[in-house]
Amino acid sequence: MKIKTEIPKTANIYSFISHLSQWNELTCIPQRKKEWLAKTGKLSNDEKKSLEKFCLIWQKSKFDLELFFLFNDQKKIWPNLTKKIGVKKTLEIKKIFEVFENKFNLIWQNGNKKLNILLKEFEKKDGMVQKKLEVIQKLCGLKNSQVPKKIKLKMLLSGNKKDCSGWSHDNTVILECSEWPIKKIDYLVNSIFLHECFHSFFQKNKKLFIETKAMAKNNDKLIRKIGLKNWSTKIIFQEALISSFLPEGYLTEKFLKIDVRKAAKQKLNNKNIDIFSKLRYFCALNLYPLAKQYVEQNKKLDHFYLEKTIVYLKDFILINKKSG
Length: 324
Hints:
With 324 residues, the chain is an alpha/beta fold. Helices cover 66% and strands 7% of the residues. 33% of the residues are buried.
């Protein structure tokens, strides 16, 4: 399996404008907007109007423009977009991108240098990553023919040193990580990147993925009680499950020799922890013995593991209700 790495400028410009616009409560990070404006200056009236227009276009679009700009081949974005939405609409979006080009360039030169350093360090870890992907392949119950021949990794700008977001779609992983410390590259590679690969592999086991969707649907009212209103119950369930392995769970301990149970307990005692992180650490801590058993015995994820994840989602809701 090859890992193809790149730093796409068009996807980075999109991400920059997207976070400034705050068009989506789930994907746009307010703190990142604040940090980037501190570096690039206040918004002009023209920029404010362009962001308003951007929000309207993205929120009213009949297809997912975010996926289009982040996961498409960079050279094909504009011609493919024209085919999809027409010349007029594409020119409107191009105009918005042009309005923010100078502002974006104020952070791009430095951010691009940092991303290139991370990319080179990442590429050095390739052989080590391949062996760990085999562990995930076994957990997901995939045959060699089901495993993608190539995984694309796209790196994007981020905010402060603790700021790193990951996305996956089909066989592409996106990491927003330009400020990630070089000394913590192993964690970026072996926990965060592999977590996103886990999502990709998990979805390739159609039987398991369909069962997960069905179980999430059957427990919709329960999962909604967690309070993550912007997340679908399917994604919440999948995140809780995969987090029991990476980055909060057993595989991080196996790959990086980190005491994940100790880390989880410390995080859960932090009163300022957000509900999503709290859920992930809770499931990682409680599913640790089972996750370890599945990995060490080369067992693939099954109905029993899904049921156990639901059990701890119930426990999480009860505990939160009592503490609240």
